[in-house]
User: Fold Tryptophan--tRNA ligase from Trichocoleus desertorum GB2-A4.
Amino acid sequence: MAKQRVLSGIQPTGNLHLGNYLGAIRNWVEGQSQYENFFCVVDLHAITAPHNPATLAADTYAIAAIYLACGIDLQHAHIFVQSHVPAHSELTWLLNCITPLNWLEDMIQFKEKAVRQGENVNVGLLDYPVLMAADILLYQADKVPVGEDQKQHLELTRDIAARFNHQFCKDKSPTFKLPEPLIRAAGARVMSLTDGTRKMSKSDPSDLSRINVLDAPEQIQSKIKRCKTDPVRGLEFDNPERPECNNLLTLYMLMSGKTKAEVTTECQDMGWGQFKPLLTETTISALQPIQDKYNDIMADKGYLESVLRQGQEAAAAIANQTLNQAKSALGYALPL
Ligand code: ATP
Ligand code: MG
Assistant:
């Protein structure tokens, strides 16, 4: 039986942080041999907020190199750049024309990010989830491994696909497969270091709010030293009144590979003065091999380019086929 297909991506905006690693990439790596995988660097999404043209290309390569450094295996996965496959933009337009405006206005991420853009919000920010739907539907993906914050966009993707199939595929087989989210409980929502009630984000203006996968040991040490805690002695999971405590213990659990029960016992009598150096050491040593591998990959740009070229070819072959099916369903005269 053919393997199920997985599609996921990360924006090349700013630094890839522990939320992206624990919520997304780590799960891609763990599940990769079971699936046929497509992992993209979603550079079209990256311009939905103000971006820096001088760094976009370099950031795009860096994210692809981090995928490889974290253990994405090219035997199981294709890595490509979203803008290298124009079908993503074209299908977005087609889907725009069948997506009700109020579905997009209801999206939590839009509401949150719109506040930061002020009064004159980009159309692109509103349209972000339709582009994401196009990304996924083009590959007829079965599973989409993401963090908790993307769950609502996945539901919207299913709604858009179902609406399209219902409106345009009445007497024929459906154009789009409805994808399922793949969200692992642990690490699905890593919180900010400066506010345990907000998710860790690339777009948070403060770099102190996150630990980046490529941070130097001194940066990690200083961020953990300065991160928000509480005055209570003894550390515990799952106390809603102590969101920072739950977040930092979860980070320690995931970065050390220990179980929740082991961490509960180890840390229950600790104060922050004892715990913070432990979390610092554990994080630095868990990230070291990824950083070493990243530096090796970045030293060989030709290799990275060949990976992305091969990824683009494999992705475009599938994406163009789906795009043509969508256009046929809509009644377009296809190019001869
Ligand atoms: P931005 O703030 O610009 O939206 P981001 O930090 O949310 O950036 P994305 O590129 O939007 O990063 O998301 C990439 C992947 O990382 C998605 O699967 C998303 O669900 C996941 N992710 C993002 N933040 C977290 C987090 N704090 N915890 C767990 N997963 C996360
Ligand atoms: Mg995001």
Q: What stands out?
A: The first strand starts at residue 5 and ends at 10. The two ends are 34 Å apart (CA to CA). The chain has a mean pLDDT of 96.
